[in-house]
Amino acid sequence: MIYQSAQLTIQRLDGDIAELNFDLQGESVNKFDNATVTSLTAALDALEAENGIKGLLVTSAKPVFIVGADITEFTSLFGAPKEDIKPFTGTNNKNFNRLASLPYPSAVAINGFAMGGGLEVCLACDFRVMSTVAKIGLPETKLGIIPGWGGTVRLPRIIGVDEAVMWMATGADKRPADALKAGAVDAIAEPEQLRDVTLATLKNAIDGNLEYAERRARKHGPLPLNDTEAMMSFFTIKSMVAQQAGKNYPAPIKVVDVIEQARSMSLDDALDVEADGFAELATTPVASALVGVFLNDQLLGKKAKGWEKKADKKIERAAVLGAGIMGGGIAYQSALKGTPIKMKDINQDGLDLGLSEANKLLAKRVSRGRMTPDQMGDVLNSIDPTLTYAGFEDVDIVVEAVVENAKVKGIVLAETEKEIDKDAVLASNTSTISITSLAESLERPENFCGMHFFNPVHAMPLVEVIRGEKTSDTAIARTVAYANKMGKKAVVVNDCPGFLVNRVLFPYFGGFNMLLRDGADFQAVDKAMERWGWPMGPAYLMDVVGIDTGVHAANVMAEGFPDRMQPDYKSATEVMFELDRYGQKNGKGFYEYIADKRGKPKKTVNEDVYTMIADVVGERTEFDRDDIVMRMMLPMAIEMARCLEEEIVGTAAEADLALLYGVGFPPFRGGIFRWMDTVGLAAIKAASEKFAHLGKAYELTDHMNAMLANGETYY
């Protein structure tokens, strides 16, 4: 053994080959934490002192190669001065440079994921062989930063500037065929042959059959572009990246800037430019927010897995009540992820609509090459449409997704309970109706909970799992396990009107309606909130949600929280509803919708809408954009604080992710609690006082005032 630690080993193989094997003890994956970086330095010291080595094989003892840096170890960097951040990249850059400059060839066997620093160490090797089931990528821009261990330097010199920029700007995973085509890897091998193929590649290089000196020179030198080529190339790339990334995400364009600035430099100088770019971005609120989202997602996943471990029974057969778009979406997602499902409706038209929805989604996957026609057939065959309860005695969970009416749901749930096994879980997809009240019609309320999907089911990651007063841990655990199996992000919340997401969304809509009442133009409000980062403004969002659905939900919220959600005026949204303008579902709402060539609804403006709402809105007034944002965001933020204080949701992290995954809260702001921490509770308090005349929805809670007095933050 040449070197051994709890993070990696180097041993001598036959033929004077050394094997560097990453194997982080106590972890299921390898990552570049501080201990691994320190061990790699010591290992290279030992390797350089070893005589007679002819080649280096780099491997992983885990199913995953290296997932990248340990994110938890550099969160303390955010807010630090730039000069304090640069050393973070320095030590491992020296390691990779030493690895790349060994006096003999190196080859790496990439099994599983090689992400971020995991791919960067591979780029430092001379030859790369990838498993057919592996994925590689540089996802740092998704965290608001750029690669810091040579990715922006070596990757463009290996696969070309255009391709490298797309890899890094999007942060997308790359499959073996794409990686081989781009030239990022030299060969692909089946998992059981990966080591042998990599060793054979290395031995060919040792024997002189594969040249590697020129490869190294290319990675150490300037990019092969003259001034004219560079000017044209980078101008085009910058325009494309800027258009796709948008102004709120600086990391993708910084990738281009760093590559352009270092294009004519040597390796060391180029790495210094990269380190400056990394340090600059690491000081931004965007990086702090996006890393926070990443860590919150890990926490959410850990909690969901914890619930799954508590499940005493696997969900192997499911059923959904009510077909149509929502029921069809639930059936599709369940079947796609491997759980056969019965889809029941009271009429054939509903079943046909549900099957049509599933068929449409599956056909799209086939057309994009993500599924074969045979696989599509298998998934469709695992959806069993039915007009009766035949076979329901064998299902493990039933998701009720009928019309959003408490009386109808109560009747359907009570009827269904009699048809299923006494041990089966019964869940309601209600978006607003109290789970505790719905349970009153059931004989086994302990087996009942909420399972609130967001529309469209296949696209929206979030599922709220709602605990009623009598819901058992067993029902929650099995439901979360089912959500996990469906590929969803489950947030467990306690029962209240609107649960979590809708409870905080409707104060936001309340802020919108009051702005219109006071003379704001709904288009101007939409533009202000979209500039702030929302994927769509409140008028557009209400059209997408469905104005009829929105009015119903608003009434439920008003009844549940009359002191702050019961308006004392007639809103423009109510006028839209009374005029049968329901939004996208019937082609007319605040905006009007006409299908484009691809069949997608295209938003258009009908000036007549201003006449329709004239009686309930004030004289047209131009509001300051910051005032629009605060009038919209404060009610949502304060209501979310109430939810945390009332333990409707367990943590600020779960609350933030619920809004990100449920309604598209801007990721670059990290979530609503992260946003409040960023702007500061003093600023939130000042805005609350400025808009106090708008009612209790704008009034900070006692706990928020106490936090401000004590200098506390949510994170």
TrEMBL record:
Pathway: Lipid metabolism; fatty acid beta-oxidation. It comes from the Bacteria. PROSITE patterns: 3HCDH. Residues 498-593, 628-698 form the 3-hydroxyacyl-CoA dehydrogenase C-terminal domain. One of its GO terms (cellular component) is fatty acid beta-oxidation multienzyme complex. CDD domains: crotonase-like. Residues 318-496 form the 3-hydroxyacyl-CoA dehydrogenase NAD binding domain. Gene3D superfamilies: 1.10.1040.50, 2-enoyl-CoA Hydratase, Chain A, domain 1, NAD(P)-binding Rossmann-like Domain. Its EC number is 4.2.1.17. Pfam families: 3HCDH (PF00725), 3HCDH_N (PF02737), ECH_1 (PF00378). One of its GO terms (biological process) is fatty acid beta-oxidation. It catalyses: a (3S)-3-hydroxyacyl-CoA + NAD(+) = a 3-oxoacyl-CoA + NADH + H(+). Keywords: Fatty acid metabolism, Isomerase, Lipid degradation, Lipid metabolism, Lyase, Multifunctional enzyme, NAD, Oxidoreductase. GO terms for molecular function: 3-hydroxybutyryl-CoA epimerase activity; delta(3)-delta(2)-enoyl-CoA isomerase activity; enoyl-CoA hydratase activity; long-chain (3S)-3-hydroxyacyl-CoA dehydrogenase (NAD+) activity; NAD+ binding. In the central section; belongs to the 3-hydroxyacyl-CoA dehydrogenase family. In the N-terminal section; belongs to the enoyl-CoA hydratase/isomerase family. This is enoyl-CoA hydratase. It comes from Pseudohalioglobus lutimaris.
